[in-house]
Amino acid sequence: MAKPYDLRRYPGFFAITLLCLVILYAPLVVVAVYSFNDSPSITIWEGFSLRWYVDVFTGPESGKFKEAAWNSFVIAITAATTATIIATLAATAVLRAGTFRLRTVSIGMISLPLMVPEIVTAVATLIFFNAIAIERGLMTILLAHIAFCIPFAYMPISARMQGIEATYEQAAMDLYATKRQAFTRILLPLMMPGIVSGFILAFIISLDDFIITNFVKGAGVETLPTAIFGAVKQGIKPNIMAISTLLLAVSIVMVALSWLIGRRDPAEGR
Amino acid sequence: MPQDRDIAIDVQGAVKRYGTFTALKTISLSIRDNEFFTLLGPSGCGKTTLLRMIAGFEDVTEGAIYLYGDEIDTLPPHKRPVNTVFQNYALFPHMTVLDNVGFGLEMLGKSKAEARARAGEVLEMVQLSQFAARKPSQLSGGQQQRVALARALAPRPKVLLLDEPLSALDLKLRKAMQVELKHLQRETGITFIFVTHDQEEALTMSDRIAVMSAGELQQLGEAREIYEHPRNVFVADFIGDTNLMEVTVDAVSNGRAQCHLGGGHRLTCDAVDGIGPGAKVHMSLRPERLFLSADPVADESLKGRVREMIYIGTDIATIVDLDGGPQFTVRSSNSSRGNARIFEPGTEVAVNMEQGAARLLID
Fold first, then answer.
1. Do residues B135 and B16 both lie within one domain?
2. Residues B319-351, buried b or exposed e (16+ Cβ, 10 A)?
């Protein structure tokens, strides 16, 4: 029995839902399907094959892609870890240190980068690196990634922390825990689902960043997105579709992981 | 500095200000060793603020707090040998019941095994042994409440602070917990400081009660004293039901005050220091200390007419309009003895009072 305000009973609900899903997912499905195409053409289907996946790992461009993928992975892990630590500390300061001067300003400063057009951040970061005369390379990419990952990691962490009442820490301190013990024994475990979500979000954001990376990377240093872009400039080959599909699979796995961890609330008994 | 080992908590001139707002105005009170002491008052009266100052979650703006003679108001919460049962329990949701109860001991440096052994003991005391391995979310409200109690008792605090711990429970469970709390206090010999806004709860459980209002101590005494000899209008009105009448004092002699109320009705009651002839003050008449009769039984019976009869269950309340004057509520127990004093609406009756039923109050 449908409830009186059941959305599904509105006229056109099904059609609009379908349209949205098609617009969102059709391109992804096309790329994924054609990555298994046994043809050098990207538009003509000639039967199922894994040749482009083999090409990704063993083809003429495989060395370039492997190095780029390794760079991307190392940068994403390091940047996400660092950003998550900084974001956790920032959330603790903003939400648990009481009211202090510039608290509101701090909250704004942390989330503002989310609203700044990425190209502006990219140009600004490049100018900054030039100004302090740091040589462009992996290190500049890493520094830039840490910086722009912080607000993404901060969001789920602070959201989680806001839901944790301060009385838990008070109860811990009432039971002879020092401030530090109250943090490590009580607050940190309760925040863990938020921290994991923040880390995974930061990891994915770092993994697929193109604009900022393209600005601050040095000559000859590539991450997977810049390598793909470089290859596409020579013309789109089906191996690009294969590599994109692999990247998509990594993202899906990460998001699924994040969802599973977020669902496993430590408050629930198992 | 007090050295008396019979005084568990000594609050001396404690003041709490938030900016320009004064939450607590110079409170001084002594809580005795092994006492069930209640801070009673409406919300915003400062009772919870005072409790949090004892626990260490609020600074003391002025004054000092002593625990068995040692000043504690400058110590952080984790260095005060007092434990708190929080209003929302604040059980650690990621730990089992056993680890929750053992947490305090662990933080005191006891080994995990020792902490667990003692936690098991305390859980047995509150009859929750079979739930030791569960998480708090798998318990009912009443069970969570008992875990919170066990957790606070496990480290054997010198004083246990309870911040409205029963307010989230339903009536029946609350009544049962009142008895259990009182029992636990006797059994453990630990001084309990209990905060509540429920006057009935306070009267039922406490050895002594401090009635607070607007950041000030209104009266401190045993339950009977506070109920039967309220010091001022606030206490008389807040504790129990009462008929609060405006009266004028006509004369004072031999420790008795002759007064009259609206409509010219005359009454005599015990005189109170500071209330002399000509004073316009309030008088409290507890409804259960009054009784009705068809004809006046004494010179001072008040004549009136029954307006309404309300069936309460244990009692029957009768509302009487006095001739040319105020309204009275009279309560009589719903028993064969009390039923003789019940009258239908519209009946002419006399309102009579027991000895000492009327009390003059300072404002």
1. yes
2. bbebeebbebbbbbeeeeebeebbbeeeeebbb
